[in-house]
Amino acid sequence: MSLRLETIRECLEGIIPGHIATCDRAGMPNLAYLSQVEFIDNEHVALSYQFFNRTRQNILADSPVRLLLTSHLTGAQYRLTLHYLRTEAAGPLFERMRAKLAGIASHTGMAGIFQLLGADIYHVLNIEQLPGETVPPPPPPVNCLNALRRTVDRLATCNTLECLLEKAVDCLEKEFGIAHLMLLMHDEARGRLYTLASRGYPESGIGSEIPVGAGVIGICARERTPIRIGFTNSEYAYGRTVRDGIAADGQADTLETAIPLPGLPDAASQMAVPISVAGRLLGVLYVESVSDLHFGYDEEDALVAFAAQLGLAIVHHQPADDLPDEPAASEEAAPAVAGTPLTIRHFAATDSVFIDDDYLIKGVAGAILWVLLSDFAERRRTSFTNKGLRVDPRIRLPGVSDNLEARLVLLQRRLEERDAGIRLTKTGRGRFSLAVDHPLQLVES
Amino acid sequence: MLDSDNAAFIQTGVSISLASCAVDRLPCMSRGLGCKLIAGGHQIAIFIKRSQSAELLDNIRNTGRVANVFNLPSSNRTLQLKGDDAQILPFDPADLPVIESHIPHFLDEVIPFGMQENMVRALFACTVDDLVTVVYTPNAAFTQTPGPKAGDPLGTAS
Hints:
The complex is a heterodimer. By secondary structure, chain A is α+β, with helices and mostly antiparallel strands.
């Protein structure tokens, strides 16, 4: 094959619909327009199967297949020869295509009509560029490969998880020029993703949650595959989908709903990329834009590679507390403080914590905070270790994959945002200290 | 075969594609640059680029069978015509205005979807000596507008 498919992927986005030609057993040709062609690798593509039409009948009758694709950037036309292999009606590829098709349907006035029945997978036998005039492509807005290289260099300088998360969102913003983004971590035990960092929203939304399986982010997490949509559509508007999902599974009480999910109300382009290491989902990167087709295959490739690097770095920074327990830098009891007491209320059923009647956090992070403040109130204790928390029976961490370090960052950030005079500060590998500026009144409800 | 509505439709700013199959069923297609009705509306003439269509033209010479799709981007209205008597004729330079007037109509259709005009004009750029005309009599017509009626044959009319 003279042309590599990866070099003409802009033709697959459906901006100029492709043409598909097949032939029936009697030798009569058939033509149709394609909504979508999905790149799998240099030798395979998937076409959307939406209707049982003549094209479908011919394919099932062993017709050879030809596509005519056109680049919206250059006007170059390509003729591809394909051989049908199989159809997938579930799984990562299917979900990727279904999400993308929802955007295309909405953009072309076909919402509710385009429904993906299957992802037809084809072997690409040949690609031929047709002779004809073309125009030079416009320069890309970002050199993704170079942005990735600079990002990876910057991540390598971090020595804490907190620094890593901060650099990660900073690089997405500055190196990739992405203005709206979120980094969510996976709570395996509860089947949730919680927002740990964000950029580009009026409220950070740190601590807000999405169930696995809901909306672009949740489907990305469930299928462990990137989901990329190029046009505004209601089907994958994650805010609404999340609420629907909560109502449907009757878990409104356990999902974090007090902290609103950040997000653009009118996002046109959306992309969610899983952060996985060794088959384990650690979290999801989510980026969005009000522009159509803001993220292409190159951005997807770069963010997938970035997520892989970030995932390894997160794992590297997680087990710090498994190192030998360092002697405490200072076990001095905190001096007594004066002033108006803060009332800290804890609801054991959900581990929800309120500061002076204002909601702060729930779940594991809520349980951790309650333990820290209880020890502080009883013994004026200010120095803690990850290892100590992990074995503390009052916290009930959900096993080995507890993401304790990430939960501490979540708690630290929620406290910073609340600015109530309670702070957590990292003091070493697997160690941190608690500072409290007011007298505390703890109330167990 | 074509009623007046569909006859008018295929001469608006539609995207045009023409296909034919080899004897081993391998199909081939090319983009049409314009079309016109001839023989009192009983036949259709499609203009394509010879340099992009060697295989398609061979198939037409060997089988005479063609499939021809017309799609209007703004409405998704899509019509497929088929014929089995296709012939290849030299391009008549007197037909050049058909192509020239088709381009602005097509531009009006695709510019709202974000297409760049210079790219679209490159798609239609041609020289008269590279053009060829394929003429056929439609003997079947199908609506292919996406939806529940996609693929239905059109009733014969006029």
